[in-house]
Specification:
about 35% helix, about 300 residues, five-stranded mixed beta sheet
Length: about 300
């Protein structure tokens, strides 16, 4: 978890910010680098979202209050990444993709890419429709692509790579919409990770802990250098090791696997970065998690729920 951030009060004393809103324009030390940044008035730090359910959290991320602030100030950490899109054609931040509340594997990467047609919800949808879209966007696999509410969108190479890694972890073909979900350390979209460096720490501080806390995953797969840097710093990982068991993460202890980004020009398959024993342990953990889930759901199934 993140170390607590401290903020100066009017009298010059310092206090914890975990339950307080920031007043006026204040200088805040970010948790990863210690860099000082200006936090706009009204910013609510991450502990203030612990009482949201996952649908409320998804809605909050897609309508992140830092976006209008970034448009108004070129000095805002998110100004670059927000400015890459026109305001009248803005694709909102993605909270995650897939059933994060049940999927046993969660992939964490840098940030989502600006998508083509039908890879994002239309602007006229309600908050509830948008949240349902991101939860269920992998549920319907049609002719190699995905379909949501009769909106079919083409194959995305990143998603194909993620499904391949999930299949390697499970030792069987991964099922879309059931076996894995995807999230990012920066939720705003860009191409080629533009603006991620600048937005990284503020976005992580605002959203990462509540997202991880609510996910059901037993195994978290960290993809690429940006996500590796964040997760290693937050969870005290040795970035040179690929597999870390019994890691204390928000919500519960999990196994964390560090792999190259799906777009990296290097070997990306699990077998190139893990030992036979590590892969066996990972599959055993996931199989045990699946059995436990079945046992927990059996009474509900018998009741016809």
């Amino acid at each position: 978890m993140f170390p607590p951030i401290t903020l100066p009060t009017k009298r010059g004393r310092r206090r914890r910010a975990s339950r307080n809103r920031v007043e006026r324009q204040l200088r805040v030390s970010l948790p990863l680098s210690g860099e000082m940044v200006t936090v706009p008035s009204g910013t609510l730090l991450h502990n203030g979202r612990r009482h949201m359910d996952f649908r409320q959290l998804a809605s909050a991320i897609t309508s992140c209050p830092e976006i209008p602030r970034a448009r108004m100030s070129a000095n805002h950490p998110c100004a670059k990444i927000v400015g890459l899109q026109r305001e009248d054609a803005f694709q909102s931040p993605e909270p995650w993709r897939g059933h994060i509340e049940t999927a046993p594997i969660l992939f964490v990467s840098s940030n989502p890419s600006i998508g083509g047609e039908y890879t994002f919800p239309p602007s006229g949808w309600s908050d509830e429709q948008v949240v349902s879209y991101y939860l269920g966007c992998f549920d319907h696999h049609v002719e190699g692509g995905y379909q949501v509410d009769e909106r079919k969108f083409a194959r995305v190479q990143f998603w194909r790579e993620v499904r391949a890694r999930a299949s390697e972890l499970l030792g069987r073909p991964a099922v879309q919409g059931e076996d894995f979900a995807i999230t990012e350390v920066v939720h705003c979209k860009s191409t080629r990770e533009q603006g991620v460096k600048e937005a990284l720490e503020l976005c992580v501080q605002r959203w990462m802990e509540p997202v991880i806390e609510r996910c059901a995953a037993k195994v978290i797969v960290v993809l690429g250098s940006y996500a590796r840097r964040v997760c290693s710093a937050c969870w005290n990982l040795d970035g040179k090791r690929r597999v870390h068991f019994d890691v204390s993460t928000p919500g519960k202890d999990r196994t964390v696997v560090l792999l190259p980004h799906p777009n990296a020009r290097e070997k990306r398959k699990l077998l190139h970065h893990t030992t036979d024993q590590e892969r066996l342990s990972l599959r055993s953990q996931l199989a045990a998690e699946a059995r436990m889930t079945e046992l927990e759901e059996e009474p509900r199934r018998l009741r016809g729920e």
